[in-house]
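The records we work with from here on pair a chain with its fold. These numbers are not coordinates but entries in a learned vocabulary of local backbone shapes. To see the layout at work, look at the sequence and tokens printed below:
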Amino acid sequence: MLIDCLYTHFTSGELRLLAKQNGQNRMLIAEAGAIPHLVDLLYAPDAGTQEHAVTALLNLSIYVDNKERIMASEAVPGILHVLENGSMEARENAAATFSASLGWMRTEWQLVHLEQSKH
């Protein structure tokens, strides 16, 4: 159990750093299927793992296509969980992730309504 916790903490931290570095990493991490696993880690009992997971999601959300992937992974309840229960840094990054995701949703909603008004 301890080994699993340490491994999860380490890997989520590495994904956080890789996602921070450049756009290609953001794209490749998402394409490899990491987003649903990071969403699961938002409920980790270890505050550090939670912080790494939510910050990795924030970093991944910089790449526009990942915003849809994050929302499709049903991340909102996990992000809200971190907002209520996480460390101060995790809460700040959860709020930023939530804001970025809502911004994407608003833009998508506007595009749908614009298309509908053309018809």
Notes: The chain has a mean pLDDT of 86. The helical segments are 2-21, 23-31, 34-41, 47-60, 64-72, 76-85, 88-118. The radius of gyration is 15 Å. Residues 88-118 form the longest helix (31 residues).
